[in-house]
Design a protein that fits this description.
The protein is an alpha/beta fold. The protein has one domain (6-267). The chain has helices at 38-52, 58-61, 68-76, 85-105, 161-169, 176-189, 193-202, 227-231, 254-267; strands at residues 11-19, 25-31, 130-134, 144-153, 211-221, 244-251. It has a 6-stranded mixed beta sheet with strand order 1-2-6-5-4-3, sandwiched between helices. Strand 5, helix 8 (227-231) and strand 6 form a beta-alpha-beta unit. The chain is globular. The two termini are 14 Å apart.
Length: 269
């Protein structure tokens, strides 16, 4: 299997919170990555690459005579230099990091279907950013569907990414059915029938109720992280503010890390 949780060991709960103007709190994590840790970086690069293209399928997908690296960099990964490629890279990096946080630290099931069917590398996939599922035995009302909106600022500059994530999360309930259907279609395409069964359960909230929770996350490099600006966010306009969790992740030179990860993912296959 290509998936690994080694890199998520770098994601550390600081124990701090941001108290917003509305009174709600956001947990603060720090990503303490070490690019010199060759074992973790290599495993993470493989994990990351397979979000976009299965190692099993790449030789079938690339053009004859095309190298794997060229195929990934030109047809699968967002561009490192051509706009809006860098911003798409930042957004995908942040979404995958939050998905891994929910998978490995929160024990949710997060389908890995969001990136490998993109027709245009320099575009974001439509729908909610991260959908995470948790089921108990049977179809219980204690089952959970967590819908996260993720915003990233990996380069220098101050902007309230948490407020932007909250504002976009406020629309997630309107596109939930479309997001679930999109994941289901991609699972059927990949013959992941166990996952399709799970999706069926969460497509019928009327007859089989479950807990619907929303999340908003801001992922910022240190050069863009401003606790005062992030704390100025408000959840009062969110239609599910009582069922909304908030998350802030900061780290050093995250854009450089993202570029290095894409480069390594392309060249180590």
């Amino acid at each position: 299997m290509p998936w690994t949780n080694e890199h998520i060991q770098w994601l550390q709960d600081t124990g701090n919170v941001l108290t917003l103007a509305c009174g709600q709190e956001a947990k603060v994590f720090r990503f303490l990555h070490d690019v010199n840790d060759q074992v973790k970086m290599a495993a993470w690069a493989k994990h990351y690459r397979n979000h976009y293209c299965s190692d099993v399928q790449i030789d079938w997908l690339k053009a004859p005579g095309q190298t794997r690296a060229d195929y990934l960099l030109s047809m699968k990964f967002p561009s490192a230099t051509i706009a809006p490629g860098p911003s798409i890279r930042a957004g995908d990096f942040a979404e995958i990091l939050v998905a891994d946080y929910l998978t490995y630290l929160r024990n949710y099931i997060v389908p890995k279907t969001r990136y490998d069917r993109k027709g245009v590398p320099n575009e974001s996939t439509k729908g909610s950013d991260v959908l995470a599922f948790k089921q108990v035995e049977g179809n219980s009302s204690d089952d959970e569907l967590l819908v996260y909106e993720v915003k990233a600022k990996l380069s220098a500059g101050t902007k309230s990414m948490l407020q932007e994530a909250i504002d976009h999360s406020a629309k997630d309930h309107l596109r939930l059915a479309e997001s679930l259907n999109g994941i289901k279609q991609r699972m059927i395409d990949r013959n992941e029938l166990t996952g399709v069964g799970m999706l069926n359960r969460f497509q019928d909230s009327v007859n089989q109720p479950y807990k619907l929770i929303f999340g908003a996350a801001a992922i910022c490099s240190d050069s863009a992280y401003d606790a005062a600006v992030l704390s100025g966010a408000s959840t009062t306009a969110h239609p599910y503010m009582q069922d909304l969790e908030l998350l802030a992740i900061q780290g050093s030179e995250l854009m450089a890390l993202a570029h290095a990860l894409y480069e390594r993912a392309a060249n180590e296959i």
